[in-house]
Every structure is written in structure tokens, then in C-alpha cells.
Write a structure and sequence with these properties.
The structure is a homodimer of 228-residue chains. Chain A is of the alpha/beta class and 228 residues long. In chain A, 29% of the residues lie in helices and 16% in strands.
Amino acid sequence: MFICYKNLQRKGDEMRIPNHIGIIPDGNRRWSVDNGLSKDKGYDFGLDPGLSLYKLCKDLGVKEITYYGFTTDNTKRPPLQREAFVKACVDAVKLLSTQDADLLVVGNSDSPMFPKELLPFTTRKSVPKGSIKINFLVNYGWEWDLGNINSLKGEKNTSIYGGLNSSGVSRIDLVIRWGGRRRLSGFLPVQTVYSDFYIIDDYWPDFKEEHFYEALNWYDKQDITLGG
Amino acid sequence: MFICYKNLQRKGDEMRIPNHIGIIPDGNRRWSVDNGLSKDKGYDFGLDPGLSLYKLCKDLGVKEITYYGFTTDNTKRPPLQREAFVKACVDAVKLLSTQDADLLVVGNSDSPMFPKELLPFTTRKSVPKGSIKINFLVNYGWEWDLGNINSLKGEKNTSIYGGLNSSGVSRIDLVIRWGGRRRLSGFLPVQTVYSDFYIIDDYWPDFKEEHFYEALNWYDKQDITLGG
């Protein structure tokens, strides 16, 4: 397709396109401050980038995307910021729910920090075409995620994946993080054990298509061994 | 101390020195090929770097180092390579055991792939001075590591750390990986949830002190939030 020929170093059908991309959309607060706004204002500016990224992934044949919304760690921030990122996540999920995608919200929904409007999305919503899976982490915590592995005790032929609270999210091939930090910050520790990490220094609200192509061109050159 | 003033951008006592550094000493096989040797030959050249790194860490007041020796995934490689990296790990542990350090070998010791010579090191050996902890992963697998979390079921006030098979290894502040790859390859998924990652493009046998200082100078500039 045209978009491939133009921006990717090899034709789309010759490139190794990751099946599953994890997105850490960091830097919203630093972006706000740089733009003379209070820290809570940046989250809204992350909505359009999220939708653009979905469209790029879908066009390229990526099978699954996981967005890092907010975490149980994040909820300890000042209330004004917390309300702003919760609202941005609710709006993002609603926006994505209008697209052609099978959508799942993953997080601790037993907690009062989980927005009730998103409860209907905690089981995957499949749509007729359903050409791509989207997972959106909301009030996610790595300890919460690993906290039920014990339920598998005694069962045979079960993997650790099956015991995760995030078991609806598959292994991630490529993690792209905006905002320059080189860390996972608790993002899906099991699904990322073999992931390749690509860091974009720009903040998430400054998302550009070029960031995405840069990450894919880099990923195409990696030797993927899954630990072997 | 002199080594600080010379190589670090700020004085050692003003810098944020990581308490715990994880070392992924990758690139031994690529180094071998680049140097006209067969792939199995590179591992031996990783012994001196490991000892040099220990000395640098000890001088700077790092409290704990974890070396990624070999994994259950790695044991699927050709026998000649496997024998070579197992031998190099045995030699490295023996070498480190002569130093002033509390040493622990962590890995699946029930498997025939675990070298019997290292069984005595699977409980931590404390020495009188014991100014630094060293952990060395041998026949380690992330699935093996997480496989016993279930044993905590029903116990109160226990964290996930306590249920790990690697529970003797604490949270890691900084992971330094040699050999250019930007991934964890199954390295301690729980202890690395908040770690900062620094990548050195040179292969591990080409270790230089400057790599280490470069990583520490970078780490000193990071904003550490532990997910908050």
C-alpha cells in the first residue's frame, strides 16, 4: 500500500511487521509545562495521537495494539491530574470503540479508581470485521496482574500467561515509548519478557507518523530470538 | 575517591549511585565471529570484564550486582556453545567467590542443565566483610522464576517478591546491556518492572570502564519515580 512504500525502508510485504505493539504514551505532563499549561492539561492532547496510531497499525496489518492508559501507581498523583488522566482514558476508549477493532479494557475493576463507564469493556467487544485487537490498560497494576497466578496450581498444561489477570493480552513484540524514558514502569512484565524496546524522545502529544515508521524500520533490522 | 572524580560527571558523593545494577553481558558470539573465532570461543573472554565490573561497583558503593549468566532458553543452543557458556559461568562464579562479596547463584538447580559444581552457591555465602551482594543467574528461566508465586496463597502481608524463586534478588535500579539489543530477554521480570535500561552497543568481551561510567552518568540524570 502507498503508505508503506513512502515511509518504510522496505516494502510493507517484505518487512517484518510486529504482530503486537505496546504503546507507552508518556510525557503528557512535561509537554503541558513546556507549553505553558498546568500539568493536568496535557492528557487531552493524547487522544488524537492514539487514534492516528491505531489507523497506521491497522493499515500495516498489525494484529494487536496495547495502550498503557493509567496504573494503580499513577492514581497516587494529585486529584486534579488523576481526574484528567482518567477522563482522557475514558474518552480514548469510547473513541476507539467506534472503530473497526475488537476492544478490551484490562485493569483492576474492583477498585473505586476504575471508571464505571468502562466496565462494559472489561470483556472483549468483537465487531463483525474485527481486523485488529486493541487492549487498553486502565487502573492496571503489575502486582494485581500477577496476583492470581496461584489459581493455576495443580492444573496441567497451563502456562503462566493463562494465570495472569491480563491473560487476554498476548506476548508483545515491540514496545514503543514516547517521552524519552528508558523503562517499562510496570507495563505487562510477562508479555514484555522478549519485547524489543524503542524509545522516542518527543512527548506523546507531539506524536508524528514518522515516529512510528522510525520504530518499525528499526524493528525490521532486529534479530528476534525469543531468548534462544 | 579518585576514580569518581576522574570519570564521573559529578563527584561520587553527589551522584545518585544505583543500589542494584543488573548486567546483561551480551554479544559474546558476535564478538567471536568478528574476531575470526568459532561462536563458542567468546564466552571465556567475558570473565575479565565481569571481574573488572565487580571492582568498579564495589569502589563506588553499589550494594548489589546481578549478572545474567545463562538461561533455560539458552540451553537449546548447539552443545558446543552450551558447554562453553556453562563452563564460563562456572569459572566466573568461582572467580567471584574469591572476592569480598556475598554470593548467590539463582536458577533451576533441579534440572540436569544446572552445573553441579555450583550447587553449594545456591544459598548465599556471606563473608566477614561482605560489602556487596552478587547474584549470578545460572540456568535461570522467567517461567521457572514465577512458577511458585502460588505458594503464597492465603498468606497475609506477603508481596509477590516473596513468592519468586529469585526472592533473594532485590529490585533492580539500573540494567546495563552490552551488545546493542534493546530487550530484557527474560531477565528477572519482577525485579525490573521499574528499572532504567542503558544499552552499550559494544559487545561484552570489549567491555571498557568508560561504558560503566557512561551508564552511571546517564542514570544520574534520570527522574526516578518508581511508577508514580
